[in-house]
Write a structure and sequence with these properties.
By secondary structure, the protein is of the alpha/beta class. Helices cover 27% and strands 18% of the residues. The chain has 24 helices and 32 strands. The strands form six sheets. Strands 1, 19, 20, 23, 24, 25, 27, 30 and 32 form a nine-stranded mixed β-sheet that branches. A hairpin with a 2-residue loop joins strand 9 (311-312) and strand 10. The longest helix has 17 residues, at 391-407. Bound molecules: beta-D-glucopyranose (2 copies).
Length: 863
Amino acid sequence: MSREVEARGQPLRGHARRLFVVLMAATSLSACAAFATKPTAPPPAPLATIHPDIWPKLQSGVASDPAIETRVADLLSRMTVEEKVGQIIQADVASVTPDDVRKYHLGSVLDGGNSGPYGDDRALAPVWLKEADEFYAASMNVEPGHVAIPVIWGSDSVHGNSNIIGATVFPHNIGLGAMRDPDLIRKIGEVTAIETKVIGQDWTFSPTIAVVRDDRWGRTYESYSESPDVVRSYAGQMVLGIQGVPGSPDFLRGGHIIATAKHYLGDGGTDKGHDQGDNLSSEEELRDIHSAGYQSAIAAGVQTVMTSYSSWHGQKMAANRGLLNDVLIDRFGFNGFVVDDWNAHGQVPGCTTTDCSAALLAGIDMFMAPDSWKGLYESTLAEVKAGTIPMARLDQAVARILRVKLRAGLFEEGAPSTRPYGGKFDELGSPEHRAIARQAVRESLVLLKNEKNILPLKPRLRVLVAGDGADDMGKQTGGWTISWQGTGNVRADFPHGDTIYEGIASTVKAAGGSATLSVDGSFKKKPDVAIVVIGENPYAEFMGDRDNLAFEPGDPRDLRLIRSLRDKGIAVVTVFLSGRPMYVTREINSSDAFIAAFLPGTEGGGIADLLFRAKDGKPAYDFRGRLSFSWPKAPDQTPLNVGDTPYDPLFAFGYGLDYAHPRDLGALPEAPGGETVAANIDTYLQAGHAAPPWTLSMTDTHGASSPADRVPATAPGGGLSLARIDHLTQEDTLVATWTGSAPASLAISGAPIDLSRQVNGDMALHLELRVDEAPTGSVFLNAGCGDKCRGTVDLTAALRAAAGRGWTTINVRIACFRNAGANMAALSTPFELIADKRFAVSLGAVRLAPGEGPPSCPAGMQS
Ligand code: BGC
Ligand code: BGC
């Protein structure tokens, strides 16, 4: 069971407050009258100025239609100000009901990466459609005197309708980029639209047309290429596939839905690849590199654009009037509407998530206000009434939204279930759709090495299939698959599709060979060849940001696996799953063949298609994938982009071997000092042990904190003792027992880390624990940076509630620590538990996890 700590809203009072002060004094942690210090804001960067004249003058593929304009004007003339304000707000289905949509006249709903109908992200397709019908009915069922405007539901169908169980999941964009096949991109767009429309959704937040320039960014895999030319050649085709051809009868109808070009502008160009970071490009680079995809997307008639969380020279994109109004609308001729990103308006200086006229005035037409929609509705309404937001601007935003809804025929189409493809669940993962995805897998693989033409293999062999990616749907599909981070997915979540091992096994068995799955590479009978499937584990957004491009820094487990097989005289073919190019020269040198497979999606069978010969002995298919990102020679060789001078990659942009043109590479130069230490900003305690580089310590009345690197251990004053016991594996649980003899604390600390993006992303501190003895006194949870700043929440109630319930989890939004005074940009103690009286807890893990449910904080210490 999982529990989100309940909101009690009020600061600590009376007894609790006195106790805390005593505790803090007793544990000498109190030199901090400053525990309520607000984080210091960075100095404002000078605003960069946009010169519209240097941007090309373009036109949308969608022409203005006088009949639609008449209807827009008519609707506007009949709408109340409340209806207009509601129209520009989008709420998340986890935080809004159909009744809210009716009452507040909301223009749109979305399902965020972890949201689903009726609170179930893993709901089956019919349930999604049912809720879509309910939202639609609520929007159309208005009281007399009100105007009925169909609500639209937006969703992240970023690699197929990858949010839902049973859909066809295509390779992530990085793999598609390697195909260099704009026609196939268009077909993928068509399938994605159909599979999204089946469950009643009208709008996909795709394609991502970022041109990623620093592969440390956690969203690199959402990008087709570092090259603006590749992105330009794809963006328009993907939009045509999703939306249909402007002017044709099935534009936005039939099997088509509304597309989004995102994230405008320059998301792929942030400094050091930081998610939600600052893009320091020149205006010319913004135009020539980062805007390339928008130019073809607008020509293809894209109807929505999503702004980026990122900034340009310190100015947040959600409030950049120059780029939104003067470039996107006036120069590029975009004629749909602009939506901002998930609460991104809250990051605009002077704004909060529930109050942000600045974004509307700068050109945002619809606010993505997942959980903040009600407050935002109220403040916006008040500001329009007060005249701080001019009615003309509100009318303009509403008109843009209505225009798109009218173009899509939504006023006439009826309920989602009655529209073309509505409820045609057979379309999800249909054999035709899967065949297109499998073709995309084949076309997207890049053959980096094939020494002595070991590939293609004869299928009639004894094949060992090793590595933790071999039979793991979660790992081959990556982030934005069913869940936001793509974590927690198991085989059963994918009723269709093949793991890579399953694809290999069926090919080999059909030819009379044998395939054995052995994740750790052990075997009884020596195989003829080993196929080792390894790579990155799933992540999304900032959770995927890295300091460098080392694969498995500090602990090259997969390198050891490859070498152990090779040392036994077995030929090794390595298939590498990753969201970006990485430094894997040692893995390449230790393998006979090496394939960059990126994140191929559900159709793992496409990999076997390329690895084995057909019955006639000829290659069944040849490789055609060519790198759309430059491949680095060293972990720190980033940024690295084609066109740089000097340009010295390991494998250049456009590289890729094939069977028709064999070539041996020999040994590649390995980077000196290629060993880097794993940066770890999100896991603090794992299997009962401090996760490196974090360390455990105890503090009690004797003041000085004592390291707890050896367990069992007792704090000097006897207030706290630590032991380890077994839960699932040996010694995977840390048992902390407060004796009550003196107040004491247990802390996990290390060098300061910056969690500000994780705060914006609503992450939570996730504790896996079992309360063995309910606290008789109070227990506080701190996050902070030594004496300078500390955010404290009262965990007593949550822990008492968890007592006697066995293993459970407690999530505390990390924003709660910020609100209580912690400086989340320089956090050196992400976890500290303090108790004064008897209390015993078994701890399995402490780490960051997505916050779920409505945001709430336990009572905090506020000054
Ligand atoms: C992401 C967007 C996504 C949105 C809705 C944001 O955090 O940046 O790409 O479309 O959430 O899930
Ligand atoms: C949502 C995602 C969103 C993210 C923003 C998550 O909780 O599910 O859709 O992109 O928050 O950081």
